Structure formats: structure tokens, C-alpha cells
Amino acid sequence: MSKLVILNLGRGTLQEGFHFVTVQLQSEFNSKTSQFQGSLPAAPNLIDLYRRWQLLYDLIYSARSINIGLRHEEFIDSDIKIDESDITHVSDAEFDEICKNLQKSLNNWLDSSDFRQIELQLRTKLSKSDEIRFIIQTEDTYLRKLPWHIWRFFEDYRLAEVALSPIEFESENQVVSSELKVRILAILGNSTGIDTDADKKFLEKLSSDASTVFLVEPKRSEIDEQLWDNQGWDILFFAGHSSSKTDGETGFIHINPTESLAIGQLKNALKKAIERGLQLAIFNSCDGLGLAQQLDDLHIPQMIVMREPVPDKVAQEFLKRFLKGFADGKSFYLAVREAREQLQGLETEFPGASWLPVIFQNPALASPTWKELRQKTKDNATKEPPQRSTLSAKHRLRQRKASLQEIRYRPESASPKQHRQSKLNFKTVLIMSFIVTSFLMGVRWLGILQAWELQAFDHFMRSRRQEKQDSRLLIVTVTEDDLKLPEQKDRRGSLSDLALARLLEKLAPLQPKAIGLDIYRDEPSQLNQATLATRLKTDDNFFAICKVSDKTKNRSGNSPPKGVPPERQGFSDVVQDADKIVRRHLLAMQPADPTSPCTARYALNAQLAFHYLEKQGIYPNYTKAGELQLGNVVFKQLHAHKGGYQQVDTGGYQILLNYRSYQGSPLEIAPTVTLTDVLRSKVNPEQVKDRIVLIGTTAQSFRDYVSTPYMTGQGFYQEIPGVILQAQMVSQIVSAVKDGRPLLFILPFWGEMLWVWGWSVVGGAIASRDRSGRHLILAGGGAIGVLYFLCLILFCSSVWVPLVPSALVLIVTSSIVVIYLNSPQS
């Protein structure tokens, strides 16, 4: 399987470190994306090692009198000093040693603790058999110069190859050429001291599928003219001298013995070549990092350059092996890796050869294979009018056939009989779409689509914008540290009598509107806390939980705290779906077991919300239809066969839970303090006054957690403590009444039926208008995209409409219509 990894190093540098490192992993044929975050420390030693390596590289080739087109003085780093008298003293052993040191230091840096987690995540999700495009995004010049392929990760993943990319990029709209071969523009520039004839001979013999135009030591005007060619080019190749300034951002190509050009001087011509389909640029020349930087600015899809001055033989061997592998069917990245690794066989004569080639990639575009380049042009050859009079007779005949085919299917040339057939087709679409819709809605009624629909619900819930915290609430949590407080020494559960008594004593003077205790206290008290007993019995603002028993599920209940009257009791029971995720809000129920220790009719969260609203003159009522009403807000009861819920128990009074998300998480529903903060008087009184205070445990040892539709960074459903869930539910009720925050709404059955049928008609209409496979897939995909965004927009407005059934009927109806209209009977 082909995978894409993008390592974004942000705006950091090796001098200052990379504080925000992000890695994205995705399959080339799957929209699912994983993302991990970390950081990398500063590593100025890598700059020093690279400079040392670069110096020895230049010196060892000078000592051997091998021409690598050494940097002109104008382009040499001022920090690197070359002592001519010392050139003959450079040994292979010394060069090998600096290579090993650079490799060791790079691997140690990438093994830092804050980055190691990223690598472990990648190794977990990647297979050794995956072909991996590994793109590194950075603006740091020295980081681009480092030989990333020596990272041990690439030793383990033999089908992975690294490429460089800028942080900011965009794709260019391209048109395809009418040429039936892969078109290569080969510029053989200033060849002083190098052999460009070998490149020419190889390109001439490359493949019968390639058409190569050669420019030998051309003038600027000749290059410009060819780049503007109307047929466009697939590959741009340059052999000769090139160089870069030490800023890494300015590259020059020497096109003949007297002329050199910066990429900027060919900007307009190159942009036009890219628009006309240029896919790949190969610079088989010296020191091409500056060239790559400037071509990045033009958004060329991909290119190959040499990161340092390169010997003739190395450049030619790489070109030969890369293009042979590429033309033989290997992927672009795999062909580069194999050609680069094969250069190791030359390193006795040419040290460091396998470190030179480097890919630059535009992440917005996939890398084509040689076959795709050829097939793409052939498939589209008849769509563009011929640009030259030298087209073959066979090609002209093919174009005439295409023109006749186009005339044949023009609507304005349709006969009356064809018009009648069009009307018949639409009638057929209506009938078929209704049949398909009825069938799919029947399947839905049986609950077969429920799991998929609930996953879509979760996705939409996570996709909504974040909201502010609910300032009407305050959550007091009992953490693991709070369990160790002196006041907790006699506790049986998570909160002792003494700790609860002192907590309530601290809160009472701060005048909260309501206090809800989300901790079971059904065991006898261990201390004689008369004050606590009196407060529990008489404090009208205090509410406690109990749990309803259910003999049918062999579940025992929990009693409320002794002394708390029934009107201040609330059950803690919640409704979980088959996957244990809480998506529904249980407001009220009648216990089925008459012997249950908990007889509360309303949930704790409902009791707290009612009490808070009653103090503002808003009382719960029931409409004639038996639905709960608070103020002007009616809480529509959820029944079976509503929305995505088909085969579920909707006993009691249930509504959908409209989670409030702050900073991407339901955990931050409201301000939170710990038990210690309250007992030690570290809480601002304004945080308590007129608030609804919820008390509950978040200690992992008690595992009072439930799953939500939200996801963790590791791809698991996010769990939240029970007290946070109660806060979400209190907030839903109060916010709906006081702020007009909408409750989640589901269309009635007839509304959902019309919605789904409408999309079925869309699928049938698309199929009846255009029966060609390619156009049908594009139009159908576009329709599904529109459906998705409409569903998302409506959900963000708190309306849940069917996505999965609508997408299915669109696909099924269009398929059936295509089959029907292409049958002999039609």
C-alpha cells in the first residue's frame, strides 16, 4: 500500500529548535488521516558537522583532481576557509569519519524524547511493505542540506524515500498535452570540463514512449521559446554547470560558456510550462538546492537536484538508473531511492556519491508513474485541437471520430423521439428512486444502518465550532491527591463525612444557587456529624444522587444519602449505546423495579437545572402531547425510529445530548477547582456565587468515566468523568432555556423520507443525463460532497439529517438507472 508521511518542522531552525513539529500520515487512496505532534531541540552541532562534511567533500575531490564544478568564490560560505596547502592531506578515512559522525548526530537528534513518540507512532501504523513518500517541510536552509536518508528509519523501511518541501505550497491548474509520447525538454548547458554528450546519448535511447527535444548550449531566447511551446512538456532536464548562493535560495544555471541564468529570469516561461503539464524537473548539475528553492516558488509538482557539486560520472549514472527504473514501471520515489543507493558502488572512486540526489515535492500533488504520464496524454489526446500541422493521419482520424461522437450526443440535435425518451427517463428515475428509497428506509428501520449513522453523528459532533465555557457552573473535583487529605482519613468511598461536611461549610457562605453531589453515599456514616446530617436534611440547595436497580439486567442500585428528602434526590443513570458511547440525555424515568433503593423520577442534572430555573420564575410543565416544557422551550422526546436511532430502548424521557465543546474537548465544559482548593480557601468567591456547583470524583482509581463522541489524539473515543457528563447535561437544559442554545432536532419520518428520496432522485438524474463512467463518477462524487457539506452545515445548526441513507440511495439509484438505460429493452 502507498502511504504519505508529511513531517512539518514549522518555522524553527537548528539554532533555536523546533517547538511545534507535526506529522501527518495518510494512505494515498484513503482520506483517513492520522496526526501526531512533538518537538525537536536545537542542534547547532549539526550545522558545524555539515560544514565540516561539505569542506572535506570539496577538498577530497580537489585532491583527486576530479572536476565537480567547485563553488565559485561568490557562492562559498564565508565561514568555510580552504587552505590550499592542506588539500593533499585529506584522506578517505577522515571523510568516512565525518560521514559517520554526521549520521550518528542526526540520529541522536531525531531520537530526542519529544520526537521519539512521533517515530514510535509512525512505526506502529506503517508496514515494512508500504511504499512511503516521506515529505519534510522546512524553511531552514541547513536542515534542507542534511542527508535525511541516513536516518535509521529509512534503513528499516526499504520502500520509503525522503523529499523536501516548503511549508507553504499550492497546486497549479494544468492542461494536458495532445502529444502521444512523454515529452522531454533536455537543456545541455555549459559543458566546460564535463561530458554532456553521455546524457544526450542516453536520452535518445531511453524509450519509444519518449519524445526528446535537445537544446545544446542554447541562448536564453531559445530556452524561452521552447518553454512556451503550446504542446507543453512532461519532463524538463538540465545537464551542465549550476550553482547556488549560500542563502540556499538563489540558484543559477550556466546555459553556455558566456551566459548564466537565475530561475527568476525564466519565471513566466516556466509558469506557462507548468500550467501546460510539466510534472518533473531534473537538474543533473552542480549544487542545485538554490534551483529547487526557486522552482518551489513556482509550484512545480516535483524535481530532482544534486545537493552538492557532482562529478560527471555520478550525475550520468544516477540519470541512467533513475530513468530506466522509472520508465520500467517503478514509482517515482522508489526509482529515485534505488538509483541513489546504486551510486554507493561508485563511492570508492567518488566518496559521498549516494548522498547527493534529493527530491523536492509539492505535497498538493501526487507523483505520477511513467505509465500515468503516457496514458494521461493519450486519454486526453482527442480533447484538445491539434496544435501543429505535423500530426499523424491516424491521430487526425481519431480526432474526427471524437468530433462525430460529440455531435451525435449534442442535445440540440436530438430528434422528437429522443426527447420523448428523455421524458421517459425522468419518469423512470422518479419511479426507481422511490422504490430504492422505500427499500433503503426499510433496511434502516431494521437498524442495519444504525452503527454507520451514529458514527456520522459522532463525526459531525466533533466538526462543530467550539463554544465558551458555561459560566453558570462550577465543578469541584476529587482527584487522586485529594484522596490523601487529612480530612479523608476515614473515607469509605471517594469522599469522607468530614471532608463533605467541611466542603459544604466552605461553599454555603459563598451563596451558590444549587449544589449537586455526584458521589454515592449509601453506606452508614462513620462519624457523628450532626451538622452534616442537619445540612443534608434542611439545605434546599443541596441535591444528591442515587442509582436505580434493574432486576432484568441483574443490576443493584444505590440508595441516596440518609436524610436527603425525595424532592432533592436525582438518579445518576445514563443511557449508553451498544458501543458504550453516551449520545442521549435521560431526563426522567419511572423505576421498573418497585423495590429499587432509588425512586427518584428525575436525573440529578434535571433536578439541578429545574431548581436553578425555578429561582428565576421558570417552572417545568408538560404540553398536551406530554412533552417537557421550560419557559418557551419544548424538550422533544426521542422515540424509536427517530433519526439514526432505530432498534434501541427509548424508555424514560430521553433527548439527544448536544455536547458543549471548549478547545476541542467536552472536558472543559465549565470552570473547575479541586477539593483541596475549596478546603484551603483558594477559590475566588465570585466563582461560586449564584453558580450551580457540581461535586464529583475524577480520580482514575474509581473509574467513574463514560465514553463520548469525541476523539483523543490517539484515535480512541474520549472518556470523561461522570461529574463532567452531569455538567454537560445541566448546561444543555439551562443554556436552551436562558440562552436560546438550540437542542438537537430530528426531522419527522415524512421529512426524512423526502430528504432521502430527494437525493435518490439526484443520483438517478445524474445517471440519466450522462452515462459515461468517468463523468458519472465525477458528478456522483460531487453530489455526495454537496450532500456531506449540507448535512454538516445543518448539524452545526443543530438539525440532524440522514447522511448515510442519502449517500447510499444516491449511489444505488444512479447505478440502477445506468444499468436500465443501457439495457436493450430501454
Q: Structural class of the secondary structure composition?
A: alpha/beta
Oligomeric state, counting identical vs distinct chains: single chain
End-to-end span in angstroms? Answer: 42 Å
Quantity of strands, as a count: 28
SS field, number of helical segments: 23
Tally of separate domains: 4
Helix content bin: 25-40%
Biggest sheet descriptor? 13 strands, mixed
Low-confidence stretches: 72-88, 377-424
Identify the overall geometry.
Answer: elongated
InterPro entries: CHASE2 (IPR007890), CHAT_dom (IPR024983)
Protein name: Sensor protein Chase2
Organism: Brasilonema sennae CENA114
Keywords: Membrane, Transmembrane, Transmembrane helix
Pick out its properties.
23 helices, 28 strands, 826 residues, 4 domains, elongated, alpha/beta, Rossmann fold, 13-stranded mixed sheet
Summed up:
By secondary structure, the protein is α/β, with parallel strands linked by helices. The protein contains 23 helices and 28 strands.
